[in-house]
Amino acid sequence: xxxxxxxxxxxxxxxxxxxxxxxxxxxxxxxxxxxxxxxxxxxxxxxxxxxxxxxxxxxxxxxxxxxxxxxxxxxxxxxxxxxxxxxxxxxxxxxxxxxxxxxxxxxxxxxxxxxxxxxxxxxxxxxxxxxxxxxxxxxxxxxxxx
Amino acid sequence: xxxxxxxxxxxxxxxxxxxxxxxxxxxxxxxxxxxxxxxxxxxxxxxxxxxxxxxxxxxxxxxxxxxxxxxxxxxxxxxxxxxxxxxxxxxxxxxxxxxxxxxxxxxxxxxxxxxxxxxxxxxxxxxxxxxxxxxxxxxxxxxxxxxxxxxxxxxxxxxxxxxxxxxxxxxxxxxxxxxxxx
Lengths: 146, 182
Hints:
The complex is a heterodimer. Chain A has 6 helices and no strands. Chain A is elongated, with a radius of gyration of 16 Å. Chain A has one domain (2-139). In chain A, helix 1 packs antiparallel against helix 2, helix 4 runs antiparallel to helix 5 (89-108) and helix 5 runs antiparallel to helix 6. By secondary structure, chain A is mostly helical. By secondary structure, chain B is an all-alpha fold. Chain B has one domain (31-181). Chain B is 80% helix and 0% strand. Chain B has 10 helices and no strands. In chain B, helix 5 (62-91) packs antiparallel against helix 10 (160-181). Chain B is elongated. Chain B starts with a helix and ends with a helix. The A-B interface holds A 65, 68-69, 71-73, 75-76, 79-80, 84, 88, 91-92, 94-95, 99, 102-103, 106, 116 and B 10, 134, 138-139, 142-143, 145-146, 149-150, 160, 164, 167-168, 171-172, 175-176, 179.
């Protein structure tokens, strides 16, 4: 399951980098920075959310299952961008990240001790993750080597 | 969530934070044919706003916009019934107790949040001329896939890959239909 999540993160970062840049080097830099950012933020989400559930094996399963929700949104982003020609990759990314976070909090509250705190924290981190991702993509616009 | 919990002050706060979710909860008891009106309105509003947005780039009159809105209503009613039937057939593999009426109702009620968002979008579109079909419409329809996924997962007794497959299929059908019809 973890591998699917990695593929989705790489694919979504690639799509945004591809859309935002014109040069090969710009796309490459954006792709590396955006995918690294997403991996770091997902690791932070996992670390923080993991502190609310004592059973680590159960939590890892919940986390992996929740972020499987990135699959449909990655598929929509690919079809939207390359088949329908839509310029709406950001909408798919934001909904995918927020949806996965929502799924993690919905499943996590069944086992967490501080349910409301967990819900608020995961929603906030998910929001900050996609908001930061979009801001980073804007900052990287026009970046290229040489 | 029971009646006592809804009246609790902390839940009242959640009610204000998530009015669509609470509306969805309140509508749980309505029959399927009333629920289908909600998805009909949601898609009708989406197609109407698509028509309004198209005025910026091409000549489009009131009859064309009305035709688009009618197409939306048909997609939100007949289209959602067809999609629900498709989902119901797959869910029956793992859960024989779910009825077609329940499947239609749950699917149609998933469009409650987009309907609320699209109503705000329509106000912004008419009052300020903002282009809202993508910001409120497509984003809203994408959001509806989260409750659809959770509903399918619950109905299919936690079959995660079946839920992912059906959610992906529904999303793609809705996206391609919208693109084809407008």
